[in-house]
Amino acid sequence: MAELIDGKVISKQIKDELKEKVAALKEQGTEICLAVIQVGCDPASSVYVGNKKKACAYIGIRSESYELPEETTEEELLALIDKLNSDDKVNGILVQLPVPKHINEDKIIKAISPKKDVDGFHPMSVGALSIGQPGFVSCTPAGVIQLIKRSGISIEGKECVVIGRSNIVGKPMSMLLLRENGTVTTCHSRTKNIKEVCKRADILVVAIGKPKMIDASYVKEGATVIDVGIHRDENNKLCGDVDFDSVEPIAGAITPVPGGVGPMTIAMLMNNCVESINIQ
Ligand code: GUN
Hints:
Layout: E1 3-4, H1 7-27, E2 33-39, H2 43-59, E3 62-68, H3 74-85, E4 92-95, H4 105-111, H5 123-130, H6 139-150, E5 159-163, H7 170-179, E6 183-187, H8 194-199, E7 203-206, E8 224-227, E9 231-232, E10 238-239, H9 244-247, E11 253-254, H10 262-279
Parallel strand pairs: 1-11, 2-3, 2-4, 5-6, 5-7, 7-8, 8-11
Antiparallel strand pairs: 9-10
Helix pairs in contact: 1-10, 2-10, 6-7, 6-10
Bound molecules: guanine (GUN).
């Protein structure tokens, strides 16, 4: 039986620590403000944005909300980002992705000042992470590190295998594990002998986007298994990239879906908002 890594408990701990920090900053006269921009009204994005605003309210961060219509042009969105970049009262800028197809996502990510890039998506933020300089770190992989560390599991010297190489999760995840002195292998769709590679892992982070792909045959006994995926299974129940029922009996520690990595992303976004005053 694996230890269950509880993202709800750990994310609440982090948010409560941040709440205290934000209260102390307020006493010194410093207020933190996050600008949240949503273009169009994709229902899933609206839920994410709502949760981000709720987390801000809980911690004591002021949030400014910009709900722009679907027809907003790239120029209009760039002009708003420009205005927020030079607004000293705004510490963080978040453009909820995806943006409508007529807007170039890369251009938008690059337009946000690296000093306000609380998502950690700007090439400068990614570059800073890869050379060990201060900067914002992408929230989901940063959350995974917190889940591992706060569960008392050390990363140093361990065989870490990351499945997935996306810019938002897989690549920064590998960089962060390396920064923690793990021995890191990144697997992807073209990896040969993926099962054998995964079976070497002391720490296996799965971000491949395929429901229940990883069963016990991929996992070494006692390994820590972190599941970044979230899907609906054939019975409309939430599930991850890991087949939990198969892996749980042999893993040393495992994250559930839901209630594992999911709640950590917003907690780390809040952490980045608070950190922004050090970066600015
Ligand atoms: N869409 C899905 N996840 C995210 C995220 O972490 N940040 C932003 N900006 N958009 C997203």
